[in-house]
Every structure is written in structure tokens, then in C-alpha cells.
Amino acid sequence: MTTRPDTGDTMPDVAMATPDGSSVKPSDFRGQPLVVFFYPKDDTPGCTTENIDFTALKAEFDKAGVALLGVSKDPPAKHAKFIAKHDLAAPLASDPADGGLADALGLWVEKSMYGRTYMGMERTTYLVDADGTIARVWRKVKVKGHAAEVLEAARDL
């Protein structure tokens, strides 16, 4: 495995499907800072809280000129239901099963729970500057207070 892209590296540019049937990639946001938050799965407690927290602060991110994008491996139709169920405002994208952005960033990793190992998304957030350079990385994110911490860092960008 190669080293993971980190602060100072260019954000990999991989297209992902959106719930409306279009696609999005990090370079679509060039010219403004971007927060890309990767989370394991729609409609699980931590992931729901994280998405609700980013939604609650979306107006503040907008005021700071910072775009938001949540990413998981869930299919676009599941994202659409998740957005509707929780009235989420931060846009979501579906990372491809293989060769996706999470793979390029080294976030699709082996995990274990109750003695069982499986592949899953490592909860990680990237703050990308207007030129597409990774300005900050939060790895193995703890959800509580995370969205507010990211907002403060984004305001300083």
C-alpha cells in the first residue's frame, strides 16, 4: 500500500454518484474550500449524529464560503432516504465499491467487531483549500463536537 495522501497533498479526484442521479468529484469545488467527511454507513447512530451536526452548521459553513460533502459507500437511493428521513442539508455522495475516493485516500480498511473482521470506512474528515490541496485531516473521528471543530478550522483557512 502506498502512503495515504495527507496535509499538503492534492486531494485525489474521483467521481461519485449523488442521490439525484448526477455525479460529483472534489475538483468540482475548486475555487472554494471544501470539507469532505467520510462516514461508515447511513442510518447508524454515530453516522446519523455526524450528518445532523454538519447539517445544523451548514449555514455557518456557507457563510464562511466552505462547501460540504458527506461520503459513504451506501448507494444513492439509500442516501436519498437518509436525507429525507433526517432532513439533511449537507450533500451526500456514494463512493464506488472499488477504486473510489475512499480507496485513493486509504480509508477503506479492515475493521473488527465482536471478533469478526470486515472491510469498512474509517471515519475521516478532510479540509481541502480552494486550490484542491489538503489543508487538514481528522482521522478516526469521534463524532461529538467534530462538526464545530471542523467549522473553526475552515474559518481559519
TrEMBL record:
Keywords: Antioxidant, Disulfide bond, Oxidoreductase, Peroxidase, Redox-active center. Residues 5-157 form the Thioredoxin domain. InterPro entries: AhpC/TSA, Peroxiredoxin_AhpC-typ, Peroxiredoxin_BCP/PrxQ, Thioredoxin-like_sf, Thioredoxin_domain. Its EC number is 1.11.1.24. GO terms for molecular function: thioredoxin peroxidase activity. It holds the Pfam family AhpC-TSA. One of its GO terms (biological process) is cellular response to oxidative stress. Thiol-specific peroxidase that catalyzes the reduction of hydrogen peroxide and organic hydroperoxides to water and alcohols, respectively. Plays a role in cell protection against oxidative stress by detoxifying peroxides and as sensor of hydrogen peroxide-mediated signaling events. Belongs to the peroxiredoxin family. BCP/PrxQ subfamily. Monomer. This is thioredoxin-dependent peroxiredoxin.
